[in-house]
Amino acid sequence: MANAIRALAMDAVEEAKSGHPGLPMGAADIATVLFARFLKFDAADPAWPDRDRFVLSAGHGSMLLYALLYLLGYEKMTIDEIKRFRRLGSLTPGHPEYGHTPGVETTTGPLGQGLANAVGMAIAERHLAAGFGDIVDHATYVLASDGDLMEGISQEAIALAGHLKLKKLIVLYDDNGISIDGPTSLSDSVDQVQRFEAAGWAATRIDGHDPAAIAAAIEAAKKSERPSLIACRTTIGFGAPNKGGTEKSHGSPLGAEEIAAARQKLGWTAPAFEIPSGILAQWRAAGERSRPLRLAWEKRLAALDAGKRAEFERRLRGELSGQLTASVNGVKQKLADAPKEIATRAASEFALEALTVALPEMVGGSADLTGSNNTRTKAMKVMSAADYSGRFIHYGVREHGMAAAMNGMALHGGIIPYSGTFLVFSDYCRPAIRLAALMGQRVIHVMTHDSIGLGEDGPTHQPVEHLAALRAIPTLKVFRPCDAVETVECWQLALESKDGPSVLALTRQNVPQLRAGFDERNRCALGGYELCAAEDNAAIVSLFATGSEVAIAVEAKKLLAARKISARVVSVPCFELLLAAPQDQRAAVIGKAKINVAVEAGIRQGWDAIIGSEGIFVGMTSFGASAPYKDLYQQFGITAGKVAEAALARLGKS
Ligand SMILES: Cc1ncc(C[n+]2csc(CCOP(=O)(O)OP(=O)(O)O)c2C)c(N)n1
Ligand SMILES: [Mg+2]
Question: Helix, strand or coil for residue 595?
Fold first, then answer.
């Protein structure tokens, strides 16, 4: 059975003239034991909620997964798809892509991410089991390579998993001692077993080509009270007589001659892309092996209390409860009754007090900045190994692992993860945020301290290029609300963005509430809107701003009015929404004033789409500095006076 994987991997990579045969050939025995004897899944229902998850963290070994899906009888994975490996539109892209190929649990390729996703999946499983009982009871398996374990993110992931005692997380490590440059001894001498043990895992080392040893290790791991590492000594490209055991089998076709020699060595006589019927039948039986478990699960689900079942199913569909709108309006009414001059991070906490009640699927957290990010509400219990029902996760100082674990939770389903760090550390989360966008996952990043407005901590902590850098990620929504009302509106939009991630960039410093009165409409929904119209509706100047700089634009409008210049103020809480809006609506928001000015305490990049290349930009062109924030706004010229001055100068009136 394992040789069937090896043959398909060799043949598909050869046909594509591209790909990675080494891992599938080396890990074929591990995968065969896992899928044929342990993994709980049903090839006929890839979305069965209580299936065991299998994450191929070493995504370059994609042919391992595709071969398995074909052999096990996943309907869509035909032999033709295997023959079309790496071709446009095939179900067998270069690296596994979530949402593209049924049976692929997460998009992998950037090493280390899959392992960290799996930690999130395992957290989601424990959390939902705590809430819904035995209809949630599955394991999470990972196949990780040397590269996965060399990446820094793996340390964050395994430390968190060990701390939370995620006993149903089992990592099979393809310990082949080879990476692209050659033997791993060129760059690495870590004892992985000891490393995992130090992080609170059960860890063992076995021969990854001995099915009995693999099975025994998985049996033991399933009984463990801790997450488990099984380091499986393997030979990369197992079966290839010359290239096997070396980096030459890692990432290129073996070549006709070597493939012929491998077939001979493995005793595999079937032609390319053909699996002998007896072996295929064994695989197909493996694909159906857990069907009785699935049917029993469906009975258990049906027997569940109707209300509980409806709630479980709602959560898995990712549908928001009908209470969201009422809850948002409740917050807006309170703000209309008693306006708040607070930081938008505090406004976010105020919104969360209501939203987390309306949406029990929200699981919050922070990378050790809970008090700064304001992501924990009063009623939220902390999630711990002793109580997985808690809805707040102390991720520790692990932004990257946090962001990747959030992806895993969202992928698992049933949870809307949100979390917090400083905006400047979005750089530490970026690879995972990018994957959330690529996978279309609803994860929400609260990122506070969003400009020089954070003040005294100085340029190391002051984001300057970060808004632009985040806006550069396709489909990611970057929200920068200007006051407490916009903050709850942006939260609503982020929660309603079912098919993609969001960042909420929030201030440390207080901002005035600019939105007075109660308005049921979500004015942020178009991405931008006219906050203050020109008195005569014939603005000479349009002032655009986001977040804390909207108040500066409002002041600048007053200064211009004193000089008899008519100006309007447009708040732009979300570029992506505004730029995606229908042309006429976008044009109405942008307007036709003679002069466009934008104010944002970040770099200009991206603004030309709104203000045009001739627009005036008042913002940052350098790193910030350490001082009280009001001094910094003066120092860097981000003031109402400077904004008005720039517009007047352009009008020849300075
Ligand atoms: C973050 C990241 N860096 C670099 C790469 C490029 N890359 C792909 S596989 C690999 C290492 C291969 O070694 P290993 O993980 O042990 O896989 P094996 O060769 O054993 O299959 C590298 C550097 C990547 N995919 N992701
Ligand atoms: Mg390796």
Answer: strand
Check if the beta carbon of residue 383 is closer than 8 Å to that of residue 355. no
Distance from the alpha carbon of residue 421 to the mean position of ligand 2, in angstroms: 33
Beta bridge partners of 392: 364, 382
Contacts with 251 (C-beta within 8 Å, 6 or more apart), sequence order: 19, 20, 22, 60, 180
The closest alpha carbon to 435, from 393, 468, 473, 463, belongs to 473
Residues 185-198 pLDDT 10s: 999 999 999 999 99
Atom of ligand 1 nearest to the CA of 179: 13
Closest ligand 1 atom, residue 180 Cα: 12
Is the separation of the CB atoms in 402 and 116 below 8 Å? no
435 CB under 6 A from ligand 1? no
What residues have CB less than 8 Å from 369, skipping those under 6 apart? 420, 421, 422, 448
Q: Which pLDDT does position 20 carry in this prediction?
A: 98
Task: Read off the pLDDT of residues 98-153 as tens digits, 9 standing for 90 and up.
Answer: 999 999 999 999 999 999 999 999 999 999 999 999 999 999 999 999 999 999 99
From 97, 105, 156, 399, active-site residue: 399
- Report the DSSP beta bridge partners of residue 142: 55, 171
- 27 alpha carbon – ligand 1 mean position (Å): 15
Residue 648: CA atoms inside 13 Å, Cβ hemisphere, count?
A: 18
CA angle 35, 239, 8 (to 5 degrees): 55
Distance 417 CA to ligand 1 centre (A): 29
The arithmetic mean of pLDDT across residues 148-166, rounded, is: 98
pLDDT tens, position by position, 53-104: 999 999 999 999 999 999 999 999 999 999 999 999 999 999 999 999 999 9
Indicate whether residue 176 lines ligand 1 (CB < 6 A).
yes
Is 0.85 topped by the overall pTM?
Answer: yes
* For ligand 1, atom 13: residue with the closest CA: 179
Top mutation candidate among 63, 172, 250, 435 for ligand 1, by most atoms within 8 Å of CB:
250
- Per-residue pLDDT, averaged over 454-459, amounts to 98
**What confidence score (pLDDT) does residue 497 get?**
98
Does 399 qualify as catalytic in the annotation? yes
pLDDT for the residue numbered 536: 82
Ligand 1 near 346 CB (within 6 A):
no
315 lines ligand 1 (CB under 6 A): no
Q: Would you say residue 654 has pLDDT above 90? A: no
Q: What's the full length of the chain, in residues?
A: 654
On whether the CB atoms of residues 600 and 619 are closer than 8 A, the answer is yes
